Structures are given as C-alpha cells and as structure tokens.
From TrEMBL:
Lineage: Eukaryota, Fungi, Dikarya, Ascomycota, Saccharomycotina
Pfam families given in the database record: F420_oxidored, P5CR_dimer
GO biological process: L-proline biosynthetic process
Domain Pyrroline-5-carboxylate reductase dimerisation, first and last residues per copy: 177-280
Pathway, per record: Amino-acid biosynthesis; L-proline biosynthesis; L-proline from L-glutamate 5-semialdehyde: step 1/1
Protein's name according to its UniProt entry: Pyrroline-5-carboxylate reductase
Reaction catalysis annotation: L-proline + NADP(+) = (S)-1-pyrroline-5-carboxylate + NADPH + 2 H(+)
Family: Belongs to the pyrroline-5-carboxylate reductase family.
GO cellular component: cytosol
Organism: Tetrapisispora phaffii (strain ATCC 24235 / CBS 4417 / NBRC 1672 / NRRL Y-8282 / UCD 70-5) (Yeast)
InterPro entries in alphabetical order: 6-PGluconate_DH-like_C_sf, NAD(P)-bd_dom_sf, P5C_Rdtase_cat_N, P5CR-like_CS, P5CR_dimer, Pyrroline-COOH_reductase
SUPFAM superfamilies: 6-phosphogluconate dehydrogenase C-terminal domain-like, NAD(P)-binding Rossmann-fold domains
C-alpha cells in the first residue's frame, strides 16, 4: 500500500503535474514503485474546478502505476489530515490563508510547493520539510522543466520521491534556492517568451504572403529543429548560428537588423525584469 499525496490547489499547473505523475510509465522496480503515491486527493475551491479534474482523469487511460485520484472542493482539512505528502499549487496570494487553516494537520509532512515567490524559509512556518519547485506549462505534455530546491531537513527518501515525481514533467534540475527568482523568470515565464518569438516568426511569414497555416507550420518546425540541432550536436548556439551565416548573405543581414532593434538585449532584460518581479512577490507577504 503506497502513500497519499494531496494537491492543495489543482488548477493549470497542479493539473499539469498531476497528469504527469498519473501517466508515469509502469515501474517494475519495487524500490522505485514505492516512490509513487497509491492515491492522489486533488483539492480546489469550487465545484466546477473539481469537476474539471474529474473530467481530466476520466479522459486519460488508467494510471500505469495504479494511482487513484479523488477530486474534491472545500475539503482541505480532511485531505491534508489523510495526506502523507502535500503539494501546494494555489496562487501565491492565498497560500498564507490556505496553509494557516490546515497547519495543525501538517506536522513534519513533506510540503512540495510550486508557488512563485514563496521561499523555503516562509514555507517552513507550515512544515520544516519543504521542497520548492518552479516548473512551467509544457509540463502538461511531458516537456516541462522543473527547478528544485530543498530545505536542509528533507531526507534522502523524500528527495528521491520529489525527484521521481517531479521529473515526470520533463527535465528535473536541482539548484540552490538563491537561483529560484531567476528560474521563475527563465523556466516559469519562459514559455511566454518563446511563444512571442514563435508568434513573431509566424507573422513574418504572413507579412511576406505565406498563409497562416503554413507560416505556423514553418515557424514551429524551425523552432523544434533548431532545439534538436543544439541538443544533438552539443554545440554552443553561437557556433551553430555562425555556421548558417554566409558572408554577405541573407542570415547575417537579418541578424544585423535584429541586433539594431535590440532583440537579444530585449530578451535578456525582459527575463531579468520577470525575475525582479518574482523577487518582489516573496517580499509582499
Ligand atoms: N501558470 C504557470 O505558468 C505557472 C508557472 C510556474 C509556476 N506557477 C505557480 O503555480 C501556482 C498555481 O498557478 P496556476 O496557474 O495553476 O493557478 P490556477 O490555475 O488559478 O490554480 C490554482 C488553483 O487553486 C485552487 N484554490 C483556490 N483557493 C483554494 C483553496 N482555498 N483551497 C484549495 N484550492 C484552492 C483554485 O481552485 P478554484 O478554481 O476552485 O478556485 C485553482 O484551481 C501559482 O502559485 C504559480 O505561482 C504557475
């Protein structure tokens, strides 16, 4: 019999992580199988959102590792009491109110938080065992990235559980907590920045007369292919970029205009600004 994992707040990100854990491929190694919950309780505030989680689970094939999901609303107290591990996925501004109400049932239960701006130190008000995670929406499709930091009391077994569960969203990277604001910007907000680039490429095609559908297909494949090329070659992006630049050719001409327009520094400064806002989120509480 495995353990119970309670999601306090199971909206966009919570459902992405829940589906990734629920859909994890069948594990045959008994030691790894023990890292998965046998039951997940998803807690939300409204009936409608709870129903959304039920429909999501119904739309999926049965969990390969036999995980059962119960979706509830207004039952945080009971769900945290039943939990062995609590996953916190509410919006940052209601963390204090939500956690205060269930604190008496927390004890030393592992608290895994994905809430932007909430530091490990702040969260230790509810349990001394905290794993702080920053992930992103592609997690829903298994192509997410998760940056993770633990409080010093999180033990080996708990670290193994967090690593096994959270790596299901895609890539799992442990970093010191001091990097979390930067990770919030680069990883959490990152998809929006990449979508802006994708949309711009698409619109460049439309501007020059390529129909919308084909412009989208071209832009998507260019992005996907470029990422794969960097991954598979192991080369620095700058090296690959220069390989595409024929002297006096089209690519260098386009790159020069982009440099004139400050595209690169605009991206760097934009991500940095997102990190500044993430740092302020923590201080508002
Ligand atoms: N979205 C992203 O791209 C992203 C990326 C990285 C990190 N994050 C972090 O992920 C967290 C969640 O963001 P999100 O985008 O998933 O927000 P969301 O879709 O609004 O989900 C939050 C959920 O919390 C539920 N909730 C509200 N009050 C509650 C309560 N008292 N008890 C239990 N559940 C309650 C809401 O349920 P109802 O709908 O029933 O009110 C909602 O389903 C945030 O802290 C954010 O910083 C998000």
């Amino acid at each position: 019999m495995g353990y119970t994992l309670t999601f306090l707040g199971c909206g966009v990100m919570g459902q992405a992580v829940l589906s990734a854990i629920y859909n994890a491929p069948k594990v045959t190694d008994a030691a790894i199988a023990k890292l998965y919950p046998s039951k997940i309780i998803a807690c939300n505030h409204n009936d409608e959102t709870a129903m959304g989680v039920t429909k999501l689970i119904e739309s999926l094939p049965p969990s390969p590792n036999g995980i059962i999901v119960e979706s509830t609303f207004g039952e945080n107290d009971r769900a945290v009491k039943e939990a062995d591990i609590v996953f916190l996925g509410t919006k940052p501004f209601i963390v204090e109110e939500t956690m205060r109400k269930v604190k008496e049932h927390m004890g030393e239960k592992l608290l895994i938080s994905i809430c932007a701006g909430w530091t490990i130190e702040q969260l230790t008000a509810y349990s001394r065992n905290v794993s702080r995670v920053m992930t992103n929406t592609p997690a829903k499709y298994g192509y997410g990235c998760a940056i993770v930091a633990h409080s010093p009391t999180v033990n080996e077994n708990q670290r193994a559980i967090v690593s096994q569960l959270i790596s299901q969203v895609g890539k799992y990277i442990e970093l010191p907590e001091k990097n979390m604001d930067a990770a919030t910007a680069l990883v959490g907000s990152g998809p929006a920045f990449v979508l802006l680039m994708l949309e711009s490429l698409m619109e460049s095609g439309i501007q020059m007369g390529i129909p919308l559908k084909e412009s989208k297909e071209c832009a998507l494949k260019v992005m996907e292919g470029t990422v794969k090329m960097v991954e598979m070659s192991g080369e620095h992006p700058g090296v690959l970029k220069h390989q595409v630049c024929t002297p006096g050719g089209t690519t260098i001409a386009g790159l020069c205009v982009m440099e004139d327009k400050g595209v690169k520094s605009g991206i760097i400064r934009g991500v940095e600004e997102a990190a500044n806002v993430a740092a302020k989120l923590g201080k508002k509480k």
